[in-house]
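Q: Hi! First time doing this. I have a protein sequence and I read that you can turn it into a structure. Is that right? Here it is:
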Amino acid sequence: MSRTASPTSPSSPTGPSSPTLLALGGYAATRLVGLVVLAVAAAATGEDGLHRLKGRWDSVWYVRIAEHGYGHQVTLPDGDVHSDLAFFPLLPALEHGLSAVLPVDAATAGLLVSWTAGPVAAWGIAKCGAHVAGPRAGVLLAVLWGVYPTAFVQSMAYTETLFTALAAWSLYAVLRGRWVLAGVLCAAAGLTRPTAVALIAALGITALVALVRDGRLPWSTVAGVLVAPLGWLAYVAYVGVREGAPTAYFDVQAAWGNSVDGGVALALFIAGLPWPAALGLCAALALLGWLVALCVRQRQPLPLLVYTIGVVFVSLVGAAYFGSRPRLMMPAFGLLLPPAVALARVRARTAVPVLAGLALASGAYGAFTLLGSGPP
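A: Yes, that's right. Below is the predicted 3D structure, encoded as structure tokens:
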């Protein structure tokens, strides 16, 4: 695999300290900033910040599944039916298990899962970044993921941190040639979020390219590729059997407004905005396209590149509520590797204030969103 930057030298701003400790410490600092900003904003507005982290939006659905199993649905005034079968089972299963062995309720257990998975994800992200561009870039990649605009979701009882942790370590396992481990982690990711299709594609395409190049595949690669989709397929099959229709899972998602329309809903949303807002959104999408192009130019390893582009693609081609799309793209940490490499070239006295400013901005946006009315 080619590298885009040299490893950190002893005299670099990361110094002789362990890159892992720096990545985890930097990531923890960003999330602490976000929580402090939320606590201050919540105190100023008289809101319960902790409840906003564990008891709003999708978190409520996961807790209900953890406590009562699947089977709940809500009929909206327009006749649409929202079923809890839209939510994958790993997070609620962990919430149920933890609440059974610890003196906490399922909602608090969800926070424990996310707050544990966050550092695990940051560690895996740093390892992927270091493999591609050196230890310093890996550290900065993990910290940048912690200051992503919707990084406040990483502190909620949501699936993003758990999924990203599984995806990052699965990709790192592929980069190190440990295909069986990669497949098992991918299967677990497939029980966490539908976005796992991007990770499954990353493993499958990487193996296919290796087969074309070498004319053969080791048994471990074949095993990993075969195991990778089992979690996602198992849940889709479960919903199909439960509802008595092979396409039931996709029907459930469509009822939530999450059908795949190739980007039509996104185009109509932009067209319906006032022109200044539409122009700003088009600029944001252009920036996203530029980042994807930079990832390609950076010659990121094939599995990471396919995964990143896959997550972005899945996030944009669905008819989901537009405000959720930045959150849906958050697991695509490869998008942040180009800016991480750029930051790795500057001195710490420049990089640290930039990251601190981004952490404050991310925290402020998170507090505004969590204490407001719109879903993330």
